[in-house]
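To the team - phosphoenolpyruvate complex, inputs and output below.
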Amino acid sequence: MRKPVVAANWKMNGSLELCEHFSCELVRPEASDVWIFPTALHLRSLVDSFRESDIAIGAQNVWCEPEGAFTGEISARMVKNLGGQLALVGHSERRAMFGDSDTVVARKFKSIADAGLMPVLCVGETLEERESDSAFEAVQRQLNAVEEAWDCPDYSHKVIAYEPVWAIGTGKAATAEIAQEMQGLIRDHVDRRDSGEREELRILYGGSVKASNAAELIVQNDIDGFLVGGASLDVDEFNEICEAVKS
Ligand code: PEP
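Output:
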């Protein structure tokens, strides 16, 4: 039985006041994991606030190396040192706007795992890829790039987030059928790599998840939780999504 996850990606939003508000108002999870990915500036505040709870805090992005002359960057080792437990990698905004190629994503993924954090690997197709019937090929290419960079491919203590690019921040979530179909294909792909992890691997869906669509998505067999962007900035809405996942 896979434990469901509700994860908040705050992107370049938030403030110390929002951190404080979440630490007071977020309803503690019962049977699911709740993770928050704030900006790097707000990591410390949330780690301190949630130290005594089950809520885990992670980075939205790290560089590939543990330390060195990389002005402006942070490393997975630093996130770990601060008390963070996870890091996103391969988010489509990083791929599209900051030049995170499949090769860079694979290097970052490895640095996150090597530092002892849990990587949450984001994959997803563009609208063009979906409309040309190559959605799964695109996702498979992104998965292959990361798997080929490992010495020993394994998905234990790792999470995949399927986030179709056309659904992110558009208000147009994938239908439950589309999300389930793709996430089933992702699970089959992982099974072909390493059969032992098929049932344990958690695969999240991300892309315009809201309180109003969470319930119909979470009942799908291969949707093990959500990566939530815009709706995660409102603690009441986020609590409602957590409630939908729990019940
Ligand atoms: C995201 O950025 O990971 C995301 C899913 O955003 P939104 O929920 O706003 O579509």
